[in-house]
Write a structure and sequence with these properties.
This protein has 455 residues and is α/β, with parallel strands linked by helices. The chain has 3 domains: 120 residues, no CATH class; 189 residues, 2-Layer Sandwich (Nucleotidyltransferase, domain 5); 101 residues, no CATH class. It has 21 helices and 8 strands. The strands form 2 sheets. A 6-stranded mixed beta sheet has the order 2-8-6-3-4-5, sandwiched between helices. Strands 1-7 form a two-stranded antiparallel sheet. The structure holds zinc ion. The site of zinc ion (ZN) has 6 residues, from loops. It comes from Amphibalanus amphitrite.
Amino acid sequence: MYCQFIQPVALYGSAAYMSLSRKTNREKMDQVAAAGARIITGCPAGTRTRVVMAEANIRSISSLAEEQGAILRERVIRLPDSVPARQTVTRKMRKRLVNRQTWREEATKIAKEALLEETEREAMSLPPRPPWLSMGKGRISFHTESGDTTSRHDPPERRRAAAERVLEALPPTDSTYYTDGSTEKGFGVGGGGVVRIEQGRGNATWSVPAGKWSSSYRAEQVAFLAAVRDAAGAPKEVKTTRLCTDSLSLVTFLKQGTRGPAPETLTEIWTGLNHLSRRKVNVQIVWIPGHADIAGNEQADQAANTGRTLPQETAKIDLPSAKVAIRGVCWKKWSGTYHTTVPPEHTHRRATDGRCLKYESEWARRDQVLLHQLRANRCPLLQATLARWNRPDTDGLCPECGVPEDTEHVVCECPKYQAARSALLGHTPTLTVLQEDPDAVLRFFRRTGLLPEAR
Ligand SMILES: [Zn+2]
């Protein structure tokens, strides 16, 4: 409910207003988020706000707004100079409120931290005429049929056979390209690889850099563009060209076009393809499944890995990759606030170090709530919590041991529950069991009778 309805309302337009609003108003917004987090987790009022936020796994409105501001700036700064919004972002203005940061300043600071300011950005533009509409006139064809007969869960032999059937059914070509992109763990230093198989100029394999911050999709685009550029320089004898990629999203996007501004790389791919079709070259754009032992694709994959080792300075950073970098910085800043506000000796920090609870599907709502409350050390089953609430019938101490009965005492220490503990949590568990094996903690609470069986 909170994430679907409340958070979006608070964030609407937040990039513009949040940095200008007073600190107290920001805090009011964040209190709404904290109230949402308390409802999500069932943690009682009086639980440390940052702990509840971590348990609910939501970020404060101001942290999210900061991120949105930085992304907005990133989006606008790539537009052509003639767009008024772009002028607003880049112009120097005298500040009217000296003691407040403008969203520009805040956003620029984040971009600096994400190391975006030192890289050339890829421009976005609205092409005068959508190139994908004028594309081809029957000369450019798209083929994604291998996807109809296989899924990516099929073994490589099956996917390879499906791809070969598709390729064999197509008219023969004078030149064939295989392109592939590669990035470190899905986002990071990227590279592209191209394999060309051609009678005229002979076969060739080469690599291109995709930038220091590149998504795998971006790396695929860069590789594909390298192939299109090369195809544009082919001798006149080449009348049919086949471009094979294992990125289905790229083929789909090239075919459909876009309603908004398009990044340079894609515009250049479209322009290149149009150029080829004007030269009366027939172009087949084919999707083939990746990692299916197709020789050309495997070779392109190797070349893409090499592309990652090339100097990356010449590669521009595209908007989606910049967004990932910004989210990374903002997320790191937000998780940093956990360590500055929750002291090291706090139960929650020792149990979870700020990580959230991984839900298991068979848990009932009250199981989830119990775990959240235990991790926060604010649970009505604990005498220490009841004493904190000034309940008249408790002193907050364990009746057996005479020490405060908190999460740690019940889960890890109290001799009363040692039999159940040894059986379910290990002989001498630490608080981290609440993070590593929450399900065992639930069983422990049932076994000890502390949590009555559900009716
Ligand atoms: Zn005890």
